[in-house]
Amino acid sequence: MLGLLLSSVAAAATYLAPPDSKSGPEAVLVFIQGAQIPSTSYIDTVKAIQDASNFPIHAVLPEFFLDLALPIQSYLHKGIQDALNLAPSDLPVYIVGHSLGAAAAMEEATAYPDQYKACVIYGASVNRKYQYNFPMPVLAVNAELDGLQRVSRVGEAFFNYFDRNNTPIDADSVSSHPIVIIKGMSHIQYADGESVPITVSHLDLKPDINIAEAHQQTATVTSLFLCLQQQTCSDATDLIQLVQDTRAYLDPMLKAFEMEASPNLYTPCNSDKPSPHCPYYPAWPLQPNRQMSPDSNCICGVPFTNTAAHIMAGLDETKYPLINVDAIHDVSDTKPYHHAHIWSNCTTGALPCLMNSTTVSQVMYEEDSSDSGFPSASAYEIRVKMKARQIYKLFSSDPNVPLDSVDQGSICADINQASYDWALNAASKDVQDRFNQYGQPMVMQPDTAPILPIGPLFINSKLGFKDAKVNGKWELQVTSVGFKTPEDSFVTHLYPDSNGYHYCKVLSPARVMEWIHTDGLRKNKVAYATAMPNPSSNSFLIKDSIAVPSGWVQGNAPVDLEQTVDFGFGLTQSNMDLLVAKLYEVSDPSHPNYGKHLSKEQVDALTAPLPETVKAVTDWLAENGVTESDINFNSGKDWLHVKLPLSKAQQLLQANYQSFTHPESGKTVIRTTKYSLPQKVHSHIDLIKPTTLFGARPKQLTTRPGKVHSKRDASSDCANGVTPTCLKSLYNVGTYKPTNQNNVIGVTAYGGQYASTSDLQQFTKSFASSARNAKFTFVSINGGQNVDDPSQGGVEAELDIETTVGLTWPTKNLFYSTGDGDNSIQYFHQPDDWALALIDKPNSELPQVVSTSYGDDEPNFPADFAVRACNDFAKLGARGISLIFASGDGGVNGGHGQSQCQDANGNTVFVPVFPATCPYITSVGATTSVPETAAQLSSGGFSNYFTRPSYQDSAVDSYLNFLGSTYQGYYNSSGRAFPDVSAQGQNYQIVSGGQVQGVDGTSCSSPAFASIISLINDNLLNKGKSALGFLNPWLYSKGYQGLNDVTSGNNPGCNLDGFSATQGYDPVTGLGTPDFKKLLDLV
User: Fold this and answer.
1) 359, 696, 849, 896: least CB-packed within 10 angstroms?
2) SS3 467
3) Measured CA angle at 254 (ends 251, 256), to 5 deg
4) Could you give the CA distance from residue 235 to residue 389 in angstroms, rounded to a whole number?
5) Cis preceding linkage at 862, omega within 30
6) Tell me, what's the pLDDT at 374?
7) Which UniProt keywords apply (predicted)?
8) Which residue among 144, 447, 585, 800 is the active-site one?
9) How many CA atoms lie within 13 A of 872 on its CB side?
10) Is 745 helix (H, G, I), strand (E, B) or coil?
């Protein structure tokens, strides 16, 4: 999002002089605001610090653009330095930050350690990358009821500073890095509570103390720390006591983390090489001799798994005492010593009889690469391999054990109940009482089982968490997956290693502890507190605010505010995380649900807005004179449309609609650069259109005249330009001819681009004789037209349809034409409109592949629109459509090579392209010549909106290692990389207006690659299989083996050489170009 947000630097700052009553050595405090919280909201807190301090403090509060102090060094440092110019110079400076501002303060302090005497962070912990080497003293003040910076993350930080190295809580340690939790306080209470960002309103908990008390306690802790740094006090007793109280408060949380063997606190022992203090894992009589590890500073296994083993055994331990030893390891490992084992000497009949067993645990975590503190710090599940209860009984010499059946009952649920009970009992009384009053209890459900007793199915079935309302009260239903095998069956005869097991997805005690401290309170205690200044539900919060995009200027034409406009309200969808999880399941060839695409009804049911969302928005509109009959919903109920006079919309949205002109294109639109929504509906609406999207009418990707009939170093098929014959030869299609009548491919067109049947037939006659007399089917979206006249044909549209028809005929080809609506006020959101139109159709009316050769610079799309559109693409992918997009024609300089390539501070940055950066589509770059090399026009790079999806990690990490420090700071290395693949993109031969033309661009590459996928789908459908659907998980895990790796060339732009193609993945040609027959073998 950086390219969008950094269109300015700090615009202003507030200076607060110290109280007249203060004397002594002076200092300066610079306070960095939290995300989307005005810096002036912290004035009361800063004044409280000045009053509590025993020395004079000058304070400055820089105000950053859009109230976002992003931790981008050049941007951040300039804003801070500008603010510091308001205060006296040559004084010690303390840097303070809240939330995102705390992250910014840490970045600034580590980048310029000589400029600051100490650092103070509120609602944050020292970032993990700095936790052992922060360059100055740092105070971390945290709130017990902070819904964003979890208490669990504070516990981790406390452990790693104090407990890991047995650091005493004394004057030295609290002068260096005190960590304090203020009880009863919430995240927003560091500020004045007048302006609450949407994330905070969703996640923060209701405080138990009022805002004045929160400010006073924050100021007290801060002043105790600062006076030690300023040497205006020498007694650290009060601060020591606060840190000791925090340690006592965190003790149950830290014990819970120990129970799950959290790797953020403990190093797991390497069970391949047993450690001296793990003396006999797995220590069953048949264990092989293995090299001992010298590591003694590690944890042997998951302590709670030993509890689980005792519950699984179900033995009378006065007679059959059990010693279980666990090891931490990937549960998919099938080496004998990474199975569960059991042994005893109970055959003698003597009691008590010692039972011995081993187990294997794998602890699973959500990714938190940004170390934001938002995601849970605890494990979402512990995968545990145990021997079955029947086997424990067998080894206790119980004569009644049935060897040919599996354990009965829900033993995994019993284990999870024990985890839940342990955490509830371990929590402090105050925490227990709060949870009993406000909390949503966990209720264990009967165990489920994989469809088949197969290890991978167990591994890929997550521990289930589901909100449910029972008898009018919310509960969290927890469902474990139990994988059970008998001791004696035909399966265990075939696979002896699989006999007598009972695996469980186990609930971590630390996850329960987080639940009772934070997440389990959200249903009843997330409400914005009545104990602090609470804006009324009718107070407005900014929904989106942008600078006028580059290339646009405010027009002089008056705006007709009485014109009626069709406004679309994108209602907040439910379960988008689950929808994406389903998308990956049906798209991952290693998952049992691969190819089991969802229906329209399933997607609608999963993502439909909550009834309270629909009610909140319709009630708000009704309050403003919009009747039920004025409102229209789409079939999925996630878009609400209503026609309003522009004047009414301005009132509803607190917007100011004006005319803006794009001189290069002559286009004029009516837009607003900012709009707001009442708090009561703010979280129920994702976006409204038309509002802040200027350039979302996707510009046609550049199609340049090529060199017709230019000689190429290639086979004779490609000697005179790229044609269907050339592509079939180059990409190993051979004589394959599609035959399946249910196979359909589509191409999209926008902005009045028309396709001509007569041009198509002239093209096939000249360049694709097997498709002679071919036709396409026209489909109108949002009033789109197609004037079937050669004189009206558009080069882009005809390139797309001629390429797909030439390669896939007689496959049915659809030509989607998306209209503009009104020429000045309506949407110009065509990629989204096209997707919404297809989302409303049943699966039977959808193509299996769609190619789109349009896009624009990512910063030209407001982030809310890009995210929503990308989610729409995910819906289509989950329903089995392969969405193929051109990557752009500007190299590293956006879609068209026309960006300024600068951030707000004038630094050179590369410009990504949307929708190519959406992680739920397949982006296609361009190659040229034979042998193939990267085409210089091929756009590629890394998104600033979307983080890198996990399916790219291995491939992209390899490229980043190859790249090293080259272009560091020019791109977002953690962003989604693009393109994914490539195809020929220069010197295509087409017919437009009755004339043969040569065309360049990824506009050529996208329909070419899409056509190869369509041919593969034809083969799959003929075999009764499903179409490929969303391609990327398959491409990055398996399909890359059927691609031609392109290892030469680069994509220059921004007056630089751009990225280089190399072996493996690169952000110029992706994974490579298609080899049809190899890909066919892989599917």
Assistant:
1) 896
2) strand
3) 110
4) 59
5) no
6) 65
7) Calcium, Glycoprotein, Hydrolase, Metal-binding, Protease, Secreted, Serine protease, Signal, Virulence, Zymogen
8) 800
9) 25
10) strand
**Which position among 192, 759, 796, 856 bears the catalytic label?**
796
Angstrom distance (rounded) from CA 611 to CA 656? 31
Give per-residue pLDDT as tens, 271-281. 776 666 665 55
The helix (H) or strand (E) run that includes residue 98 is: strand 93-98
With a cut of 50, say whether residue 704 has pLDDT above it. no
Does residue 195 or residue 583 have the better pLDDT?
Answer: 583
Dist. CA 425–CA 791, nearest whole Å: 80
* Strand 473-479 with 464-470, pairing: antiparallel
Name the packing angle between helices 757-767 and 795-808 (round to 10°): 50
Lowest mean pLDDT of 178-182, 561-565, 709-713, 855-859, name the range.
709-713
User: By three-state DSSP, how is residue 532 classified?
Assistant: coil
Is residue 1064 marked as binding?
A: yes
- Establish whether 800 is a catalytic residue: yes
Residue of 886, 962, 973 lying closest to 924 (CA atoms): 886
Residue 796 annotated in active site: yes
Confidence of residue 53 (pLDDT cuts 50, 70, 90): very high
CB 978 within 8 A of CB 913: yes
720 contacts 668 by C-beta, under 8 angstroms: no
pLDDT (0 to 100) of residue 526: 53
The answer to whether 520 touches 476, Cβ cutoff 8 Å, is: yes
Higher pLDDT, 879 or 553: 879
For 874, residues 6+ apart whose C-beta sits below 8 A from its C-beta are 576, 579, 580, 583, 920
The amino acid that residue 231 corresponds to is Q
Res 615: pLDDT? 92
Higher confidence at residue 406 or residue 14? 14
> What is the rounded average pLDDT for all residues in the chain?
86
Residue 782 is predicted with a pLDDT of 80
Q: Which of 206, 207, 212 is nearest to 192 (CA)?
A: 212
- Phi and psi of 259, rounded to 5°? -60, -30
- Give residue 218's region: left, alpha or beta (phi > 0; psi -120 to 50): alpha
Tell me the CB-side half-sphere exposure of residue 478, using CA atoms within 13 A. Answer: 26
**What separation in angstroms does the CA of 857 have from each of 187, 628, 892, 939, 985?**
36, 39, 11, 10, 19
Nearest to 942 by CA among 1067, 1066, 1064, 1072: 1067
237-259 helix and 151-158 helix, angle to the nearest 10 degrees: 100
pLDDT tens digits along 301-357: 899 999 999 999 998 888 889 989 888 888 887 777 778 888 887 866 788 888 888
Separation of alpha carbons 293 and 333, rounded Å: 19
pLDDT tens digits along 644-675: 999 999 999 999 999 888 787 777 888 998 99
- Of 714, 568, 745, whose CA–CA distance to 642 is shortest? 568
In the residue annotation, 1003 being an active-site residue is answered as: yes
Please check the confidence at residue 776 and state whether its pLDDT lies above 50.
yes
Do the Cβ atoms of 406 and 388 come closer than 8 Å? yes
* Residue-level length of the chain: 1083
Q: Is the pLDDT of residue 500 over 70?
A: yes
Of the residues 201, 587, 1003, 1006, only one is catalytic, namely 1003
In the prediction, which pLDDT does 825 show?
46
Name which of 400-409, 809-818, 854-863 the model is least confident about. 400-409
**This prediction's pTM:** 0.57
Residue pair 1058/963 in contact by the 8 Å Cβ criterion: no
Is 1046 labelled as part of a ligand binding site?
yes
At residue 451, the pLDDT reads 72
Q: How far apart are CA 29 and CA 55, in angstroms?
A: 12
User: Whose CA is closest to 517, among 188, 243, 146, 160?
Assistant: 146
**Rounded distance between C-alpha atoms, residue 872 and residue 859, angstroms:** 19
Quote the CA–CA distance of 1061 and 1048 in Å, as a whole number.
Answer: 5
Question: Nearest-CA neighbor of 192 among 44, 9, 383?
Answer: 44
What would the 3-class secondary structure string for 853-866 be?
A: CECEEHHHCCHHHH
